[in-house]
Amino acid sequence: MSTFRALFVEEEPDGKVSTSVKETDLKTLPDGDVTIRVHYSSVNYKDALATLKDGKIVSRYPFIPGIDASGIVTESTSTRFKKGDAVIVTSYEFGVSHFGGFSELIRVPEEWVVPLPKSLSLRDAMCYGTAGFTASLSVQALLDNGAKPEDGPIAVSGASGGVGSITTGILAQMGFSVIASSGKAGSEILLEKLGAREVVSRPDFNPEKKRALDTERFAHAVDSVGGDVLSYFLSTTKYGGTVTACGMALSGKLETTVFPFILRGISLVGIDSVYCPYEKRVHIWEQIATNFKLAKIDTLIHEISLDELPKALLQMTNEGMLGRYIVKFI
């Protein structure tokens, strides 16, 4: 295809930022080893921030956002991939400083491309996207540290978000008892459908009075919001437990002491999906296709078209949402 459609974020003469779907051509695409016909993309909060002037994601205009994509290779100078291969692209600079996945065609370096696992469809891959990949990294970290369902309850913060909801679903499906936190209306029904044993309000994981070492409450915890919630998890996780941290929606600051680490042997594991090593990245996608594959993933999914995407992004910045948007191109 000589021309194709994409979602552009552009800076207007008055300094404001606008978002619209436009037709463009291959000369628009940045350099790369692999050109891909996108079949699906997914919508993340980071993508919504990319449409805001003060979102601190986009530094130059015009720009095509979208940090996730799945599709079929149409051209390749890479020895890893050939025309016709089904692939996934997430992370690195994709959709941040390099034109992203809200486009019918993309061109990227070969190092950013992962082969689609055989038991996963292109649509399935975007039902997870970066959020599901991050959730799976978190679950894998717990398992690597020896977490077992019989250990006791696992706390999941930000559970109505992409990472938290998929984490809740994976852990519950594996037999873990999940206590999930959310402040969004309607989240309790959604999280219970995903298998949460208990759904609590945000203040439950962020009490006014905090202690350096509090009563043991959770066997392990998965945090995606940071700040005082992460501090609370560290102080209330049982002896030998693991706490993973992958976000800072609440705060990037962490106030804690050495007590949870030297008196209870707690492990704090950082989760990074952006520069995760390639071999590990491939392994996690294989886990998503097999051991972590959610039977109830469609409970979370709202499928939209490229033309409906601007409205969905505006909703995310203004109101937030339950579940995940995926964009269907083909």
UniProtKB/TrEMBL annotation:
**Which Pfam family, just one, is annotated for this protein?**
ADH_N
InterPro entries linked to this entry:
Acrylyl-CoA_reductase_AcuI, ADH-like_C, ADH-like_N, ER, GroES-like_sf, NAD(P)-bd_dom_sf, Zn-ADH-like_protein
Question: What SUPFAM superfamilies does its record include?
Answer: GroES-like, NAD(P)-binding Rossmann-fold domains
Q: What is the source species?
A: Listeria fleischmannii FSL S10-1203
Q: Name one GO molecular function term.
A: acryloyl-CoA reductase (NADPH) activity
Q: Where is the Enoyl reductase (ER) domain?
A: 16-327
What's the name of the protein? Zinc-containing alcohol dehydrogenase superfamily protein
Upper taxonomic lineage: Bacteria, Bacillati, Bacillota, Bacilli, Bacillales
